[in-house]
């Protein structure tokens, strides 16, 4: 009790020093718990989290190939993959005992009319060169929208179309963008007419079943041609696309449909195996295997990875600066205590009791600050990380909490031992020197 009382009285004599010690220990402990929680979340997301994905694989032109695309040059369609190409790749994948399902979407330019005028591009050219001012995309299943190059959509008015329905009514249903509907003063139920890319005189009529808006950012540059503006895309079911003559086998120029088959795989391991099989089957040098599933996932965890990177540097700074400040406060507390130590020894206080007192003067504020910091970190790491990492969970698990407690305790003990050493290094010969020397 004597030791504890003296230690407490010493802390009360220097309140700002004690408060500063508590605050520094609190900040370092909180930063440690939060930083380790973020790093653990990032490691999990980039490792087990990604491995748990069920990727959708597509075979599409590389970025270098797309950079050379000219939407007014119909020879570009030589880069389209045919059913025969996809059959070759699928057969190669199946030969490795790989199991998968698939969906697909096909696109072709279509021509505007008085009932449906496209949103203009920045450098439009005649439809005779581009094939049309609008793009019509036929979807085999609703899942195909998840792998749509233009982006994912949501219905803001009306209903989704029956993508696989073959009934006559389903063959004339379409979705148009909110921007296109606004420009043409269209609403659900209205009818619009568009023309085929190869022959402007051949038109067909569609009924607006729903109006959509994109839910993902537009990654493409501002469209020079109207047909390349994703808001000028008309979505239909595949049977509507086919029944209106856009999936013609003998088509030429821009009338050739751009076929995209998306393979549904069960794991990242299967995705890597599929990629290897396709390349082994003679994948064109202008194309690559990619996965919108993986791309979107990696983009979603990018804020978490950035935060983890910042926390690695932040923790290093916190540990170095915090450790040096705490050490400086301990040394400051031990200055000019020689007289106090000598007096204690003279009146019969043992070095052990004096050492324990000095240790308590260090342990009480550092342990209190660390405890508050760890408690705050345990409750705040999750919400704080979620706010800074776009919703990703960064709550610490029991292992991280105990790890932080252990290292905090070790740091406090090291500082306390420094105080203990000061007592045991005190030389009794100084008791017979001048007062000024004894208080050094």
From TrEMBL:
Transmembrane segments: 313-334, 354-380, 400-425
Topology of the protein relative to the lipid bilayer: Multi-pass membrane protein
Main location as per UniProt: membrane
InterPro entries: ABC3_permease_C (IPR003838), MacB_PCD (IPR025857), Macrolide_Exporter_MacB (IPR050250)
Domain MacB-like periplasmic core, first and last residues per copy: 20-278
A GO CC term attached to the entry: plasma membrane
Signal peptide (residue range): none
Domain of life according to the entry: Bacteria
Protein's cellular compartments: Cell membrane
A GO MF term: transmembrane transporter activity
Keyword NADP applies: no
Keyword Nucleotide-binding: no
All residue ranges annotated as the ABC3 transporter permease C-terminal domain in the record: 315-421
Record's keyword terms, sorted: Cell membrane, Membrane, Transmembrane, Transmembrane helix
PANTHER family attached to this UniProt entry: ABC TRANSPORTER PERMEASE PROTEIN, MEMBRANE COMPONENT OF TRANSPORTER-RELATED
Family listed: Belongs to the ABC-4 integral membrane protein family.
Protein name: SalY-type ABC antimicrobial peptide transportsystem permease component
